[in-house]
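Hi there,

I know you've been waiting on this one. I reran it after we fixed the sequence typo, so this is the corrected version. Both the input and the resulting structure follow.
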Amino acid sequence: MGIVEAILLSVITAATPLVLAAAGELVTERSGVLNLGVEGMMIMGAVCAFAATQLTGSPYVGALAGVAAGASFSLLFAFLTLTLVANQVATGLALTLLGIGASGMIGEGFLGMQGIKLQPIAIPLLSELPVVGPLLFRQDAIFYLSIAIIAGIHWFLFRSRAGLKLRAVGDSHGSAHALGVHVIGIRYLAVLFGGACAGLAGAQLSLVYTPQWVENMSAGRGWIALALVVFSSWRPWRIVVGGYLFGAVSISQLHAQAFGIGIPSQFLSSLPYVATIVVLILISHNRRMTLINTPASLGKPFVPDR
């Protein structure tokens, strides 16, 4: 049971950044904006969170710095694509490349430093329950926040008037504009929220998952988060299922190597990305369902009538 509990704890830790980044991107895409810069925002969140933690001694300040870094990068993306109407795909890719380069420059002075880990918070009584206690009720604040964000997004999208407006903008920005909805303003807020979630996901990497700074430590998780949004069919709770599925795949390759299973380490390391490709192939077969759930205005520029 001790080994199983340790593996499950590792899966939760590995899945949390995927859930956070995918949740933020889901809101962004629901508004009709395709932001491929999730990887860049995550890595910037990771380095800024680690740097702020080292400078202040508080991982909570570090987490806020990660959120601010991701949100700042997302505002740059929003300005270029929503105000200047630049191509969303090209801008997102450029944002990722910028994030990888800028994070390497910022983090150069923090290489090799011992990190300050964000400690778990034990919920009284519930944390003492066998098995589920340590797994669900003795976790760090970012884990609890990830579940709250998913629940909040579900309520916002399907139970609130503001969420209805956001979905209307994503499905038909022309019709929403004709009804008096501020399309650009809503998309700015959606992109900002997505960037903040990606920055928090990056902060989790450098404060919880691996409390240190290593260049390119996001290791493609931003791209997996993008695939998770499609996997979930733009539904918040399905992101949790997909995130923990991919987290389990990521952790399984580490434990397989530890147990000495005779499979090449290179193949095991590629498992999360192989799983991503397989999932996308399976989803593409059900084209009708994909088209029904995809925001109709996704990736399409909008220029309001003057």
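Quick highlight: The chain has a mean pLDDT of 89.

Best,
R. S.
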